[in-house]
Amino acid sequence: FGSSSAQTRRWASLPPDSSALCRPLPPPRCSAMAPEREEASLRPVFGPYYWPVMVAFPSFCAAGAGAWLAARGASEAARGPHALVAAATEAYVLSLFSVACLQGPFYGHWRCLVEGDLGMAPWIHRCAGVLEFFVVLLRSGVARHALAGTQELDNAVATRCGLAHFLATGLMGGALWTWPFGAKLPSGLLPGALALLSSGLATDRWLRLGASGKERLLWHGAALGAALVGMASAAMLFDPTRCSACRESRRD
User: Fold this and answer.
1) From residue 196, how far is each of 103, 201, 243 by CA, in Å?
2) Using one digit for the tens of pLDDT, what is the confidence trace for 81-103?
3) Whole-structure pTM value
């Protein structure tokens, strides 16, 4: 009891302001804090470079590839409509995914400049960046064929293109759900819809040239299944507390 009363007298002798010394200190804020902990500072969904990076740049590359083939095609067949469409759509897919895969290693910059907080955890964006890199890697073999207007294609190259389309549709399936149903911003779906259309058209061209009809249908069926899985996965992984558009709609 004596030690307790002495401790009480010591606390009583302290000035009134000293009670703040007993309060727990708030956790330090660090600019390098992981994005998943920064729930109070959500970034706008559309970054300042979203439309230039996701639509304008790929469209410019697609137009350039089509113009190149139209002007430099080796034969009339190489300058035909099917070859021109394949060149333009292939350029669109490759240019878009070449930039989008940067969200894997540079997610912090991607979040600030291109695509903000859309309702997905950072690890999901980083995994998407890795898959987008593999899409570019698998499709790189048909790039020179697209610019040359090739009329024949090796089966191995066509198969790799089919696999790349399978991965791309899975990724874009997530976008098909996230933008209109999660973030409730259908306009943001435009890049994903164009990528899905371009990948489908280009892949169908290469499968017709380098694979059998049955194999072509199998790849398209697998891509459709991947898109459905991507949509279902996005619905399960979506977190409205990480979506800046959801927070703004609740305030309104």
Assistant:
1) 19, 9, 24
2) 888 999 999 999 999 999 999 99
3) 0.81
